[in-house]
Known about the structure:
By secondary structure, this protein is mainly alpha-helical. It contains 5 helices and 4 strands.
Amino acid sequence: MPDYFASRVLDLVEAIPPGRVMSYGDIADYLGRGGPRQVGRVMALWGGGVAWWRVIHADGSLLAGHERDALRSYSGEGTPMRLTADGRPGRVDMRRARWDGVS
DNA sequence: GTGTTGACAATCA
DNA sequence: CTGATTGCCAACA
């Protein structure tokens, strides 16, 4: 069972609007405790039940090993993407997609 | 108590 | 833009 901290993390992830994302550090900072690694740990253990693809690295890179699934979800939500040097979508445009918890 | 590890992050070369 | 370095906090052996 998720502890209190994990519950707060999962609730917040559920609150992220479609088409928006938050970084691990953002979530930790928003909750005011723990750190990016703790958030990552929570997601690794119990993130399967929420919109895990809306939680990514601070630089906009996707979850290693799940890029395909994430991209499929993003295309359906209209998440703003940035193109890699290869010219294909590889990371999220954090400047526009980042969600602060209010708007 | 001590050392390692990890779905991380800011900084610098 | 890529890679290395350092800082971070909690879990685990």
